Amino acid sequence: MTHRYRLIAVFALLLLGPAAHAQATREAASALRSGADQARYWQWGWSAFYGGSSAYSLVHARDTDDPEERYDDYINATKAALGLAGTLLFAPSHGDAYREYQALDDKDTPEARAATRILIAGLAEEEARQRAWQSRLGGLIVNGLAGLAIGVEDNRPGDGWVNFATGMLTTELNVRTRPDTATHFLERQPDFRLKANGATLPIYVDWAVGPMFAGLEVRF
Predict the structure, then answer these.
(1) Are 138 and 163 in contact (CB under 8 A)?
(2) CB–CB of 197/176 below 8 Å?
(3) CB 196 within 8 A of CB 6
């Protein structure tokens, strides 16, 4: 009986092997495409935020009669301009990786699949680096200097702390909204594995339940 089941498992692996490779290729392509989209939205959104904030602060500084508000506006305009520069200079490279993937001739060959995995692994390493605590040092320095300028030089410690806290909150949101599609793709583990004669077929099970629906998907 055991031998019979083993034969059935081997036969299933032989039949489903090409389908499994095709499914893996589609999932990798989807991860790269999603990462490129997220990277583009991230860069556009934060560029608009920083650019708009800097412009608003400069206009408000010109129109206000309050010297403290004018001082804060110049500080905030400088911070936003630095944030815009960082967004443009250190944008995620997911778009470049997806273009490299699209340039592959035959995406179903073992060489193309290996190249795709290398691209995703490189993106995952970049995502981990950009989410590490070191990625917040730039924001910490800029917001710390801004808070000191307001709190010490302009003798308003309360306003300085508020400026520092809101600036660090913005920095944290900037870091946490960066794309993480490659990390998610690599961390996804099979729910089951079918093994026979040294070969392994990973099986993924996804389910969803809502007020008006229920769904189950099995992928291999």
Answers:
(1) no
(2) no
(3) yes
Q: What is the distance between the alpha carbons of residues 173 and 169, in angstroms, rounded to a whole number?
A: 6
What does residue 66 show for φ and ψ, rounded to 5 degrees? -85, 120
Strand blocks (E) in 77-198? 192-196
CA distance 129 to 141: 18
Q: What gap in Å lies between CA 181 and CA 178, rounded to an integer?
A: 9
Other CB atoms within a 10 A radius of the CB of residue 150 amount to 24
Indicate yes or no: pTM above 0.90.
no
Question: How many domains does the structure of the chain reveal?
Answer: 1
- Structural domain span for residue 157: 2-219
**Which conformational region is residue 66 in: left (phi greater than 0), alpha (psi within -120 to 50 degrees), or beta?**
beta
Please tell me which residue, 89 or 209, carries the higher pLDDT value: 89
Show the tokens assigned to 132. 């590490």
To which residue do tokens 């935020």 refer?
A: 49
pLDDT in tens, 80-97: 999 999 999 999 999 999
Tell the burial category of 104 from Cβ atoms under 10 Å away from its Cβ (0-12, 13-18, 19+).
middle
Average pLDDT of span 196-208: 59
